[in-house]
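Chain A, query sequence.
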Amino acid sequence: MPAIVAAVLSIFLFFALCGALVLIIISLRKPTTVPLAVAGGLVVLSLIVVVVAPVDVPLIMGLIIAILGTAVAVLGGNPVTRRVLEIATHGRVKDGANGGILLDAEAAGVRDDDERPTEVLRGGTTIGYLERLAVVVAIIAGYPEAIAIVVAIKGVGRFSELAAAEARERFIIGTLSSLLWACIVGALVRSAIW
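Chain A, predicted structure.
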């Protein structure tokens, strides 16, 4: 009987993570609430199922679930974080071409006679992917203390760009939403395979 339960749980997790990944890929271009809410619901439902019915997932299926979960955590954090930031800022802060935000020269702390907006927090998209990868791998590996290292490196690296209120707000909200998503997915995978 436990083998059947483990097989059913494994199949459920596989399809739930595949469904979440498909919805996330759809949302990568233009994050919208409904697909992201459904993807988040699938992840949370899977976490609840794994916590309520702790069953050992077979090794091969555990590896597949770990890979799918890592993809969901890394890719899913982008549209989730972008949507959260859009809701939080009501669309007042414009995105730059290099993954940062556009601020006027005065707000960005640039002393320049040029009136063109300055892009700060450049590379945020790439940093977010790397941050989520590090966090989800650390949680799956059983080393959640590494999250503190990731946050410290990110904070030190971005410190000089946080003079403007818009940059601080985006940094804090973006980091927390990104880390929360990666931690939830990491906890799901860790609970399912260990």
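The mean pLDDT is 87. The radius of gyration is 19 Å.
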